[in-house]
Amino acid sequence: METRRWQHPPVCSAPILSEVLSVCICNPYMRRCKMAIALLVACFVLYTCLGHIPSSLGVILRTTDKIVWANEFEPIELTCLIESISTNNPRIEWKKIKNGVPSYVYFQNKIAGDLEHRAQLREPANILIFNTTRSDTAEYRCEVAAIDDQRDFDEILISLAVRVKPVVPRCSVPEAVTVGTSTELRCLENEGFPAPQYRWFHNDEELPQDPKTNLKFVNSSYSINPDTGGLKFRRVRKEDAGEYYCQAKNDAGYAQCSPQMMEIYDVDILGIFLKAFGALIVFACLVAAICHSFRRGCFHKKGHNENNYNWPAQSSGVDYGDADEGHFRHKSSFII
């Protein structure tokens, strides 16, 4: 790379300046002294206009932006401007630092790492990324080494953040809700960067975050959380019926889900009465069936005392007397 090397104008060379200054010191009122002062002023103006910095200060870098935002799949240039340098063909390197781990982006005069074939070095030391991706979000460090300069090294750090457009969010809308009840509609998207803000639409009209600010929605009881995508109704009205869809939006763009219908029904008092009456009839029939079964003895079980057991007569034993020997007779005996 051809670098910028500043040369002293002949009129501002060190020997000439020292000569005129010595004359001015020795003869402060001579014409040559006035010429010397004019020459000094001219050299100062020349240095200022040309942006010259003496080479003894060494290599100095700067950048136009230390924090850079880019949209995904669009080009972006990271600037590393060399303010001062005297060395021809200085060593230029770029490093990418992500999660505290550095890796080469430009090394040994070629693009390296995950930017290979997607970037190029532009004069003086800028990096141009053709199509940025979300993986390019990181810190980038430009390093320039100049061996012929008194200050032979300088670096500058640039932070790159890539915006990512949201994808189509996932929306959840209840199909039917009863008047006077509460319900919630949900919306979620987790690809966009920075995190998107959410907006809800009812019949293609955006719902204001605060319904009290719009006469059309002043009687609505909903609340919207733009950070989480929730749309909550404390008490649903008939007017809340219709099509709903959600939109997720950030600085890179927006995406929205397809409209979904939510119907609102009145409270069906007759239906509730008929259902309760039907349940009462079923319960009465069940009780009557159980009572009838008890009367018929379907649930009666015989006890052990109702079983007829015939105990066999004992034929063993010794008869110690007959019927004529008084009232007391041994019917049996036990052998011990």
TrEMBL record:
It is found in: Cell junction, Tight junction; Cell membrane. Keywords: Cell junction, Cell membrane, Disulfide bond, Immunoglobulin domain, Membrane, Signal, Tight junction, Transmembrane, Transmembrane helix. It is a single-pass type I membrane protein. GO terms for biological process: cell migration. Coiled coil: none annotated. Residues 54-159, 166-262 form the Ig-like domain. InterPro entries: Ig-like_dom (IPR007110), Ig-like_dom_sf (IPR036179), Ig-like_fold (IPR013783), Ig_sub (IPR003599), Ig_sub2 (IPR003598), JAM-C (IPR042974). GO terms for cellular component: bicellular tight junction; cell-cell contact zone; plasma membrane; protein complex involved in cell adhesion. GO terms for molecular function: cell-cell adhesion mediator activity; integrin binding; protein heterodimerization activity; protein homodimerization activity. The chain crosses the membrane at residues 35-53, 269-291. Belongs to the immunoglobulin superfamily. This is Ig-like domain-containing protein. It comes from Monopterus albus (Swamp eel).
